[in-house]
Amino acid sequence: MIAGMTQNKTKIIGLTGGIGTGKSTVSKIIQEKGFPVIDADLIAREVVNIGEPAYIETVKSFGETILRDDGSIDRKKLGSIVFNDTNLRHRLNSILHPQINKKMKEETFKYSLLYRVVFLDIPLLIEELENLNSSGLLFDEIWLVYADETTQLKRIIERDKTDLADAIRRINAQKSIEEKLKYADVVIYNTGSIKELIDNVNKALEEV
Q1: Residues within the annotated binding site for ATP?
Q2: What is the dotted CATH code of the domain comprising 42-114?
Q3: pLDDT digits (tens, 9 = 90+) for 10-20
């Protein structure tokens, strides 16, 4: 990884996966190799910090019942409100996504001045690809972390101490991992050991 290269166009890589595929682990491996990774989930939390424009709009739209005692937004409570209601979810997304995309663009520009490759870790990249592109976030490559659905279910149940029905419901809330494969330029398979995963990531990084 070479920092400070600004004479060549920076390669922008979108990193995504499905729930339980191990995307967060891959993101960590990439960072440990010295590549910058912009975390969309982290930015999503930052834009609803108390006093931020998205915080104000979200509270105005959903009411103060979504707040904790300290005034911060209870993301779990808000998530449960919008999960099964398409209209409410759309309303929330219309508040959050412009702010998230704006911050991601700012971070991408900042890192592009210093690095020849920048990764954006976006869980719902495929689902939101059109909106991301419309906001000016364009990707040279999309990397997909892949695990079959049986492996996904097993990991979700073990990690989150939940049952099979809940795990299936959460997987079905996203595009299937098989559907996401159609959009991927690079597929990182994560169905074996951590050593195999590290080897797969390193192999992909050698090609960037």
Answers
A1: 20-25
A2: 3.40.50.300
A3: 999 999 999 99
Which tokens sit at 141? 């490559």
Amino acid in position 169 = R
Beta strands in the chain (DSSP E): 11-17, 37-39, 117-121, 141-146, 186-189
Q: What is the pLDDT of residues 35-68, one digit of tens each?
A: 999 999 999 999 999 999 999 999 999 999 999 9
Residues flagged as binding site: 20-25
The class (CATH top level) of 11-36+116-208 is alpha beta
Q: What Å distances lie between residue 146 and 104, 150, 152, CA to CA?
A: 24, 12, 9
128-137 exposure pattern, b = at least 16 Cβ within 10 A, e = fewer: bbeebeebeb
pLDDT band with cut points at 50, 70 and 90 for residue 2 = very low
